UniProtKB/TrEMBL annotation:
Its EC number is 2.5.1.17. Pathway: Cofactor biosynthesis; adenosylcobalamin biosynthesis; adenosylcobalamin from cob(II)yrinate a,c-diamide: step 2/7. It comes from Bacillus nakamurai. This is Corrinoid adenosyltransferase. Gene3D superfamilies: Cobalamin adenosyltransferase-like. GO terms for molecular function: ATP binding; corrinoid adenosyltransferase activity. It comes from the Bacteria. Belongs to the Cob(I)alamin adenosyltransferase family. Pfam families: Cob_adeno_trans.
Amino acid sequence: MRLYTKTGDKGQTSLIGGRTDKDSLRVESYGTIDELNSFVGLALAELSCCPDCSDLQAELQNIQHELFDCGGDLAAVTEHKEYKLKDEAVSVLETCIDRYTAEAPPIEKFILPGGHKAAAELHIARTITRRAERIVVKLRKTEDINEAVLRYLNRLSDYFFAAARAVNARQGVKDIEYERSAAVFRDDK
């Protein structure tokens, strides 16, 4: 198999059901999700050094598959789309977010991204997720998308935040509060 096809040499790329310019919002959206997936892989590699993070490793690998689903769904421009990503993936993330939030000490203020190296990498994934979400929101204004992708990205950034805090808690690393932050988190229970 040859990796290069030369079909994109003039600035266009193939979609599922068509072609478009490589700088289109559609390509930008799934390209950013691809970038995110690579950073998830980096965090996953770092977590291999954390023996008490096997649950998180399995979740991140599943998230990588779901990110490919998101990218495929965003690349589809055929009239009759059969989307891969479903809302069940959003529900799974919510369960994980609740579990990881309970693991970490309560916070009231914003925290600085960082701590354990794997936690810092999860924070990077969180910020790339937010960027991907902004691009998908912009794409949605002009083109049809799988709405589950938008919900998934919104929840995924919260997942990465909660997971990063859980990694820090498991590794005995304290989150550092942003000194000039007002109290922004509250207990809704």
